[in-house]
Amino acid sequence: MGPADGVPARGRAGWFLRRRARRFPGHSRLQRPRGRHSPLRCRRRARHPAAPGRPILDDALRDAPGREPLGLLGGHARARATHDVPLAGESGAELLIDTGPGTPSNRRGFFRQTIGRLVREVAARTEQRVAPVRYFRPPGALPELGFLAACTRCGACIDVCPVHAIIKAPPSAGLAAGTPHLEPAVQACVVCPDMPCARACPTGALVLPADGWASIAMGRLELDPGRCITFQGASCGVCARACPVGERALALDAAGHPVLKPEGCVGCGVCVTACVTIPSSLKLSLS
């Protein structure tokens, strides 16, 4: 048991100081050098400002231009200011921050527009997660989630296709099982002028567009120049001659190279199956 065990915890500091003072004759108490302040006393004094109104801070705020909030001083503040990232650069924040000409001036209109944008964004992302686009749909198909909900898997569009390009999705397709789709690499759509598949749909999963094939884009066409023989000095042009849309979708330049025109391509895949290279120099991907 030590000599300080019987001393209360709050009095041990004074007890040690008095015991240390006994070792030095002529010193009844420790002397603190003049001009020095105890850190503990300074800390306690800083907790209680002299004036309750904090005049120094009030004066600084009063003299600040535009009553801007005071920032940090020193190198840390400068480093932080140079590395600030605006919130509008984030994908979620840009839905909330909009200073364009169409921004409503009143608060009700602002909240209505902001909530509407959030709902549309959440719906689009939910559709991509729940029903991702994995198949080439027949012309006139609704967006994937709406198509899966409207299609009854009746097979009417499959029966009327003249070239049997429309087939049913396998049972392993999940929510899309039994729905009609295309495989352009096996059998391309021949772009029927009257679009019998869309006309035969009884539920509206396939809708006949008012402008016909002008607004149809079943896929996105891509060209591999390293595989196309026209880029190796040979003449071909089979893909351009086989395209049912014509030069509005696929043409040849002065050197005989294929020129893709996405604004006119319907994504039928006729050029993909007509290509003479194996595998095909043209590839159709989901748009």
How would you describe this protein?
By secondary structure, the chain is mostly helical. Among the domains are: 134-215, 2-Layer Sandwich (Alpha-Beta Plaits), CATH 3.30.70; 217-287, Alpha-Beta Plaits (2-Layer Sandwich), CATH 3.30.70. It contains ten helices and six strands; from the N terminus they run αααααααββαβαββαβ. It has helices spanning 12-22, 39-47, 55-63, 75-82, 107-130, 144-150, 156-160, 196-200, 238-242, 270-274, and strands at 166-168, 180-182, 220-223, 250-252, 258-260, 282-285. It starts with 11 loop residues before the first helix and ends with a strand.
CATH top level assignment of the domain at 134-215? Alpha Beta
Shape: elongated
State the order of secondary-structure elements, H for helix, E for strand.
HHHHHHHEEHEHEEHE
Assign the structural class, choosing from mainly alpha, mainly beta, alpha/beta, alpha+beta, or little secondary structure. Answer: mainly alpha
| Strand order in space, largest sheet | 1-2
Average predicted local confidence, pLDDT: 76
Computed Rg:
39 Å
Strand content: 5-15%
Low-confidence stretches: 70-90, 93-97
User: Strand tally, please?
Assistant: 6
